[in-house]
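Case study.
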Amino acid sequence: MPKHRLNIGLDRFSGLYLWAAFILIFGLWVPSLFLSMSTVHLVASTQAVSAIIALAVLVPMVCGQYDLSVGANANLTGMVAVVLQVKEHWPLLPTLLVSIAIGLLVGVVNGFVVVRFRVNSFIATLGMGSVLTAFTLLVTNSQDEPVPLSAGWNNMTQYPVFGFQVIIYYLLAIALITWWVVEFTPVGRQMRAAGGNPEAARLSGIRVNRLSWWSLIAAGAISGLGGILYTSLTGPSLTFGPNLLLPGFAAVFLGSTQLQPGRFNVWGTMLAIFVLATGIEGLQLVSGAEWVGDMFNGVALILAVALAASRRGKPTALRRRAIKTKAGQQEADSMASAQDTAQAGTVA
Amino acid sequence: MSANEAQNNGHRASHNGPGSTAVSWGVPGSQPGTLPAVEIRGLSKTFGLKTVLDAVELTLAPGEIHVLLGQNGSGKSTLIKILSGYHHPDPGGIVRIAGRELQFGSPASSRALGCRFVHQDLGLVETSSVLDNLLIGVGFPTVTGTIRRREAARVAREALARVGLATDPATLVGALGSAERTGVAIARAMLSEDGMQPVALILDEPTAALPVNEVERLLANLRATAGTGAAVLYVTHYIDEVTGFADRVSVLRNGVLIATWPVPGLDRGRLIHQLIGSELEQVQRLETPHADTRTRPPVLAAADLQAGPLEGLSLEAWAGEVTGICGLTGSGRESVLGALFGALPRAGQVSVAGKTLKPNRTDLAIEAGLAYLPPDRRTSGGVMDMTATENVTLVNLKPFWRRLLLRKKLEKAEVAAWFEKLDVRPRDGISDPLNTFSGGNQQKLLFAKWLRETPKVLLLDEPTQGVDVGAKAELHRQILATARQGAAVIVSSTDLDELVTLCSRVLVVRNGRILEEITGDDLTTTTLNRSFHLESAAAGNNGNENA
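After joint prediction, the assembly is written out as follows.
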């Protein structure tokens, strides 16, 4: 069975199959718990912030830059928004503007370090994440803050629209904008080129450094927004940020094997977030175990990168053409028979 | 014969002991009546309905250097993959290595029988020493698990000497030139775990990544290798270096081995005809009357250019003219075009149509009308994972940006037209990643990328390196057409034939400056070569004076 799944996993729609399989399995297993609208609503809104953070990871990834500070950034901005309201009694709007501005500023600094000091983005943002965690503790005096008691603050994410909490529509909006920028604008194309081969991009007149910088700024702003939405939806916490980082990367890498294989892409990432969440939710309903989420996300990240790597070994377009033209028929046949053998072996 | 027997025989051969260079069962080549090193009989391979190899017959004598010429898609890769035990041929074919039958589909059998391969990607670790690269596969000589350094160095030096290299085994591979690296890969291939002497060395496109002046060194290595009694099969689509060194040459076209000829007395024109199956249209350089172009101001003017080895180089280029740049490795030739474009950091003045360019700003250089094709497609030319279309349109997406969306239909239509115009194959590949195309077609696509900008100045660094004859001719036609339409073209190349074919004048670079300008009837490979020799003579004199 595992080998069989691996074969389907190489397909660009495997995520959809997997999603359907999860729904089928858990639907049959615990129908009363799993097959309810409340489960749908729950998964949608709890995963909205993860998905927004995943988009924050995605944007610089397209440009070839890692941003490992998105989680800590979200935590800081989320807590700043709480502190400003609870301790400083700021009204909602300036709170939001200042908090997002902090997220954006973090992106500016990340970009500065990466572009001007030529520090590898992996290292630069890893360090920045730690610095931001320190700031979070400074700002909050290491104490969990009480929930701000303003209706606007809670309604901002929790207000129901068509049965779903409104936060899911924010996610949709951010995803649509990101999709548009990455896929349908010259800037998006240039980002991809910079990510694919920075030197070739530079020699094609693309200002790679400037693009990288902007992509890190965008990541900062998006994760800042994500952090505020998290504290509004779930309440203040000193530790939620780091927990968002790994699922975000898992989704981005898994997403790069989906829909547009070999490319970091928005809808693949979204698909991955919700497939993983559905699996985790189902397993938690069945077993009640706490460790399922961490296990699932970790395995998914490793598996996703392994899949992406195996894809890089064999370019899909080549394989497609080999199967399309009759020249490759025999190779396709032998591949299929190998697949059959593998299945027969595992069934037996 | 089973694979087991073959293995056993291989082991029997090992009784000569490690380090022995004696031929244990191979036979010196020139003697008549000895076993051929490689004997291929009736070898066919079909994929589905397509015949890739059609009853190929080929015999290699020990100690022979044999060139197998074929265009992309002629079946040469399939042949190599059968010999290396990767592909199974159709039933009926036979391959014998030194008289013993090759077990198809078994890389172990291929190696045990004495076949060795060097691929275009040499598979060397650049950050490791030559010694480590040589011995990592066959194992280091050890005492209680510790490497015997002196013994290892001796084995490595011997292996290098066998292929005619005097490289210090402690050198890092990254510090070697491309020819020397290929030599190291050959030396590694010719080593065996058990000291057995390889029977055949098969090289797959070894010169695709080599500058022309480095090819000579590689050929010396091959002659040394053949001297040990191994047959060398040199598989390439590059016709030009064939005549210099091979004993015999065979042409493979559409899976059919057309014929084999001895090299002495071979006619190049006939060979090309056999290779591509039709006459190649001769490319003629532009007869630019100098007085005519020079009445106008130059389009490109560079003064006191400093970048890397360049020391105050100045040059000018006129519209409608193809200017060549040549020079030995280390002369600064490699840096000239990159410095002009802004690919390399530079000091000095560069202006296009009277407008001064900022250094390090490729975007402004392109805006001013400059276009630059870098010498290495993979590392700096194309984004290999992106599609052909995306690569071609990367420099300028404005025509497709309408009402807030990139219009991909318009984009694809324009690229499809370029596929047609430059004869890029496969025609339906416009949405395939660049790395799925052959080298020649990749280069055509990168040409299209710049030609669609109709540049004022087109800078071409090694424009046809690693490109097959057909694509090369097409690219040459495009270069001349671009100049005819009013661009100033500058070609920097190690391929002297190419410079003579294309350029109306060639600038010779030495010590980071332009040494002389060769034009008109003087412009032949002979004069260019002589300018090199003058250089080295001058350099030798300088050395003497210093001493």
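Observations recorded in class. Chain B touches chain A at residues 46-50, 52, 341, 343, 362-363, 365-367, 372, 374, 379-386, 390, 394-395, 397-398, 401, 404-406, 426, 429, 431-433, 435-436, 449 (CB under 8 Å). The radius of gyration of chain B is 26 Å. We will return to this complex in the next lecture.
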